[in-house]
Amino acid sequence: MALNFRSKQWLAGIGLLLCGFILGVLTSPFVMHNLFHHPDMPPPPPHEVAQRIIERMTNELSLTDAQVKQILPTVERTANKVEALRQTIEPQIQKILDSEIEAIDKFLTPEQQKLHAKLIRKFKKRHEEMEKKRNKQK
After folding, report:
1. CA 12/CA 16 separation, integer angstroms
2. Which of 26-30, 69-73, 80-84, 95-99 has the lowest mean pLDDT?
3. Could you give the C-alpha distances from 83 to 1, 46, 99, 135, in angstroms and in order?
């Protein structure tokens, strides 16, 4: 059975919509967290992210219990990989930030440098508190 050009267009469109939907379901917890999450709260732990994704997929796709059992390990594995990557790159990000802080200080007056240092300490303290909360959630 050969498909005509119009049928191929429809199939391609449906495939594209399905890919977009799956990508949206997988990334929406991260996007929503970054857009609407209070900055003083740590990001959710991987098991919570996985649970939210599964809940959303179940609601949107009407997954059966059997499908949830089949899909859940993949979603959990992905959430854990993303968290591991975040932890891996965090020191590199901090190194870049520290370097840029030093570069900025060169343009500030001594009084501004003191205020800048105070702001940085405040930021680092808040970041450490967030990490402690995050580690307690695990």
Report:
1. 6
2. 26-30
3. 46, 7, 25, 12
pTM: 0.53
Q: What is the mean pLDDT of the chain?
A: 82
For 92-126, the pLDDT digits (tens) are: 988 898 899 889 999 999 999 999 999 989 988 88
CA 132, CA 69: separation in Å to the nearest integer?
32
Phi, psi of 5 (to 5 degrees): -60, -40
pLDDT at position 34, please? 53
CA–CA gap between residue 2 and residue 23 (Å, rounded): 30
Q: What is the DSSP letter of 4?
A: P
- Asked if residues 75 and 83 have their Cβ atoms less than 8 Å apart, the reply is no
Rg of the chain over all Cα atoms, to the nearest angstrom? 22
Q: Look up tokens 């996985």; give the residue.
A: 50
What are the residues whose beta carbons fall under 8 Å from the beta carbon of 130, sequence distance 6 or more? 40, 41, 42
